[in-house]
Amino acid sequence: MFDLIKRNRLFLSALTVLVMLALLLSARWRAPGAMGWLDELAQTIAYPFQAGYHSVSTSLRNTLSDYVSLVNLRQENDRLKLQVQALQEEVNHYINSAIQFNLLREQMLFLEEQPDRKVFAEVIGESVDNFHNVLLINKGRNVGIRRNFPVVLREGVVGRIQSTTATESVVQLIIDRRHRFPVLVQRSRQRLELQGQGGSVRLQPNDRGVVLGTGETLRMERIRMLADVEPEDRIVTSGMAGIFPKGLLVGVVKNVTRERHELFQSAEVVPAVDFNRIEGVFVILKEPKSADYPLFSE
Amino acid sequence: MRGLVYVMLGLCGLWLQVTLAGSLAVGGIRPNLMLLLLLVVGLRWQDPWVFLFGALVGLAMDSFSHGILGLYAISYLLSSVFARATGQAINEQNVALNFLLVLMLSLTEGMISLGIFDYLNDSVPWWSWFFTRVIPGALYTALLSPVAFPLVIFLERSLKLSTPELE
Question: What is the pTM for the complete model shown?
Answer without folding.
Answer: 0.65
